[in-house]
Design goal:
Length: 186
């Protein structure tokens, strides 16, 4: 009888322990799930922070580029004045050579900052890079070709900051005269 009593008591304790183990297993699973949720949240927040850092870096670079654009845009007019001075005939070769050296050094410094001169002469007219200021009738070039560059254009880090001002070719129109001297263009 005593033995049965101990056995019943041990069975009851065993059932209680098994019940506690089940409760603890459930709690462990809940905690594991919560841990995974926090891990996922952490990874999402870490990715968001990395994206934020990249965005801020890009924004900072854009701000720097925008600030530089104004300065560089102003310096392009100085380049133009040097270019005009170099194209003006001069008897003082030493002075001309000095102006040329300054022009080349300024142009090199601006190229280092990302400035590119738009090459126009002989190219097909492109409204993204050129501003047509005159049309020239000619048979020497195909229609729509830049035949003269009046003012150079510039691109800064892929963005046109000033289009080249150009003259564009147009097919020469032959004029027919009738007997009365009227002119008819075809």
């Amino acid at each position: 009888m005593v033995q049965e009593h101990w056995v019943k008591r041990l069975k009851k304790q065993l059932e209680e322990l098994n019940s506690k183990v089940e409760e603890l297993n459930v709690k462990v699973m809940e905690l594991e799930k919560e841990k995974e949720n926090y891990r996922d949240l952490f990874l999402r927040k870490a990715a968001e922070f990395e994206n934020y850092k990249k965005l801020m870096k890009d924004e900072l670079q854009k701000s720097i580029d925008f600030a530089n654009e104004g300065i560089i845009r102003n310096l392009t007019s100085i380049l133009d004045h040097f270019r005009l001075a170099l194209n003006t005939p001069s008897s003082d070769e030493v002075f001309r050579k000095g102006v040329e050296m300054i022009y080349n050094e300024l142009l090199q410094a601006l190229r280092y900052e990302g400035l590119e001169v738009i090459n126009s002469l002989g190219c097909t007219f492109d409204e993204n890079f050129h501003e047509a200021i005159d049309i020239v009738e000619t048979d020497e070039f195909p229609p729509g070709t830049v035949v003269e560059e009046v003012q150079p254009g510039y691109v800064l880090k892929g963005k046109v900051i000033r289009p080249a001002r150009v003259k564009v070719s147009k097919k020469k129109v032959e004029k027919n005269h009738d007997l009365r001297g009227d002119v008819y263009g075809n």
